[in-house]
Every structure is written in structure tokens, then in C-alpha cells.
Design brief:
By secondary structure, this protein is an alpha/beta fold. The chain contains 8 helices and 11 strands. Strands 3-2-1-7-8-11-9-10 form an 8-stranded mixed β-sheet, with helices on both faces.
């Protein structure tokens, strides 16, 4: 299928639920979130897409700007292959695929599949129904010999805290912008929240911005405070000292 911006996305038969949802939303997945991510990537950036799934974000970014290096992390073999094939279909030389879980240690870990392919996770208590379990390689961001990230997108269905734990040095040294899918009901022990707040405490150049849930009554992205965590469905950890491609994307912080 063609994405909203005209890139070719190879369709894997196990993920028709995702493609159907994309067709209903203008051949895009979470497009307003994609816009924020893309607006944060100046020429020459490096974009890590952790939990790339069918590769929508990774392919759109790589096709939209050939000066941006994209690394797509996806543990599901069929999806990792689909992303690589999509890159080949679009003749993208600026995208590489890492077929592995990203977490807090190097080795192997269980990967819990779900009847809905978008909800596969590295944690069994992600709050989603699970199906088969696969044993997959796991890496940490700190262990990898890759170009340092300008931006890290994390969408790993409840395992976001593990990714952050394995990226402490990367975050400390390179201060990337970060985007995370987040629902408070899926974080009952506040594992993700506590880690993000700790990052902001250690590194004062970060600001947390929330994307409101549709039923929250809020409009537009807003700075997160103690009493607003339940209102969000995604978090942007913005490094105020790192340039954006489009400063107007976050007027709440950059003006």
C-alpha cells in the first residue's frame, strides 16, 4: 500500500488489522504523532524507531528526507523482513533494520505475541491479551555501535521502562528527543513515569509534553504536571537545547 506521503509499504498478511486502520485514517498510523516526530528531525538527524511494527514511521521518515539515518528495531521476524523489503521497494539507502528486542540487558528474552499484532510486547503484564511466546534476542541501546540518536521513538507495549533503563548512557551523552506511547492504566506501578521524571531531574534540558487522550477534554499538546498523567496517550520528552526542524510544532515550549 501507499503511505500518506506516497511511500510504498509492503503488506504482511499477519498485520491486516494495522493496514485496515491505516486505510481508515488516510493511509497513516497515528499521523499527528508522526508529524511531531518528523518536525523534530533536522537534516542529518538519526532516528531510532523502537517497536517499528510494520515500519510506517521508519519508512515515512526515511523516504521523506534522505539525509536522515533511520534505524528500525523490530523483534518480530515477519515484520522486520517486511520493513527491509519496504525499504528496498523505495530504494532507501538510509534505513537499517535491527531484528531484536530493545531492553535493559543483552541476551535473550520472551516476546509475547498478541491476537492484534500491534500489541506484541516484551512484558507479560502489558495489560493486553497475549498469544504465543517467542524467545528473541535482546539488546540495550547503550551496547550498540550505531550513530548516536537525535530522536528515539519508543512504542513497545508496556516495556518502555526497560528500553529507558538500557539507554541511560545514550541519553546522558547525546540527549535525544524522545517520543513514547503512554497510557497510565498500562503503567500502574508508574515504572515509565518514574524513569521519565528521573531523566528530567538528572538533565534539566528536558521538558515532558503530553498528547491528550481523545476523552480527556484537552486540545493540543501540553506540559505534563503531577495531575495530568491520566489525561495523556503519548509523551514527548523534548530537549530544549536540541534544534527542531520546525519550531512551530511545539509552541508551548519553544516560544
Amino acid at each position: 500500500m501507499l503511505t500518506r506521503h506516497g511511500a510504498k509499504l509492503l503488506m504482511d498478511p499477519s498485520c491486516y488489522d494495522i493496514y485496515a486502520t491505516m486505510r481508515l485514517h488516510g493511509n497513516a498510523w497515528d499521523y499527528h504523532d508522526f508529524e511531531k516526530c518528523y518536525a523534530s528531525l533536522p537534516d542529518g538527524s538519526t532516528f531510532y524507531d523502537i517497536g517499528a511494527n510494520v515500519g510506517y514511521f521508519a519508512i515515512e521518515v526515511a523516504a521523506g528526507n534522505p539525509t536522515i539515518s533511520v534505524v528500525a528495531f523490530e523483534p518480530h521476524s515477519a515484520l522486520a523482513t517486511a520493513i527491509a523489503d519496504s525499504a528496498e521497494l523505495n530504494d532507501l539507502r538510509n534505513l537499517q533494520v535491527v531484528e531484536a528486542l530493545v531492553g535493559d540487558r543483552c541476551g535473550t528474552a520472551d516476546f509475547y505475541l498478541s491476537p492484534a499484532s500491534i500489541h506484541a510486547s516484551a512484558v507479560s503484564d502489558s495489560g493486553r491479551p497475549s498469544g504465543a511466546t517467542l524467545r528473541k534476542p535482546m539488546v540495550t541501546l547503550d551496547s550498540l555501535d550505531l550513530p548516536p540518536p537525535t530522536f528515539i521513538k519508543i512504542d513497545v507495549e508496556g516495556a518502555e521502562h526497560l528500553v529507558l533503563d538500557g539507554a541511560r548512557d545514550t541519553i546522558a551523552q547525546h540527549r535525544p528527543h524522545m517520543f513514547l506511547e503512554y497510557m497510565s492504566w498500562a503503567d500502574p506501578d508508574q515504572r515509565v513515569r518514574r524513569r521519565l521524571e528521573a531523566i528530567c531531574t538528572r538533565h534539566s534540558d528536558y521538558t515532558l509534553i503530553g498528547d491528550p487522550r481523545l476523552d480527556s477534554g484537552r486540545k493540543g499538546w501540553f506540559p505534563i504536571s503531577d495531575n495530568t498523567w491520566d489525561d495523556i496517550h503519548a509523551i514527548y520528552a523534548l530537549n530544549r537545547d536540541r534544534p527542531l526542524r520546525d519550531n512551530s510544532a511545539f509552541p508551548v515550549v519553544t516560544t
